[in-house]
């Protein structure tokens, strides 16, 4: 992902301004394309950092939040049968899915930092972030699914393929 060059092009003052702008409440903005670009950069950077992390550290040892156990338990109670190895768009975006995800996500407001920030999520846990393998999700959805993937061994494929172990 080429997000580093995009941020570098902003310079220190621009990057600081971007960080400040992203911390303001959503109702402070209209449909500003510059803000959308900043969000895209931030989401892309997060995805790149996370993928590098699971590529270099055995995912079963990762702790993503202070409340991983609570997230995992609640996630598996709410989404017992969700196939996290190979997600489908409708698992997150259908009307029925949104009705199930909304209360799950909202229970972590004030508990998980930036719980509703836009984040990129891989659909197929065996593959890298690509246009066809990426969906936009909230941060708490990302954490819930990736914590489950780490604990249930679905991210080991990435770790083993990148580390040649």
UniProtKB/TrEMBL annotation:
Looking up InterPro entries in the UniProt record yields: PBDC1-like_dom_sf, PBDC1_metazoa/fungi, Polysacc_synth_dom
- What is the top-level taxon of the source organism? Eukaryota
Which Pfam family, just one, is annotated for this protein? PBDC1
Looking up Gene3D superfamilies in the UniProt record yields: yst0336 like domain
Q: Which positions fall inside the Polysaccharide biosynthesis domain?
A: 35-159
Q: Name one GO cellular component term.
A: cytoplasm
Q: What is this protein called?
A: Polysaccharide biosynthesis domain containing 1
> Which organism does this sequence originate in?
Neogobius melanostomus
């Amino acid at each position: 992902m080429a997000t580093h060059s995009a941020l570098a092009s902003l310079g220190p003052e621009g990057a600081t301004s971007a960080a400040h702008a992203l911390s303001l409440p959503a109702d402070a903005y209209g449909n500003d394309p510059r803000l959308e670009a900043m969000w895209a950069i931030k989401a892309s950077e997060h995805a790149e950092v996370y993928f590098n992390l699971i590529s270099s550290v055995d995912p079963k040892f990762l702790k993503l939040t202070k409340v991983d156990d609570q997230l995992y338990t609640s996630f598996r109670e709410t989404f017992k049968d969700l196939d996290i190895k190979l997600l489908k768009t409708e698992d997150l975006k259908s009307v029925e899915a949104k009705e199930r995800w909304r209360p799950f996500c909202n229970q972590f407001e004030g508990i998980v930092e930036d719980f509703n920030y836009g984040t990129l999520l891989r659909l197929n846990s065996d593959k890298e972030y690509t246009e066809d393998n990426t969906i936009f999700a909230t941060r708490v959805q990302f954490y819930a699914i990736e914590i489950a993937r780490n604990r249930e061994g679905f991210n080991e494929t990435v770790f083993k393929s990148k580390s040649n172990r």
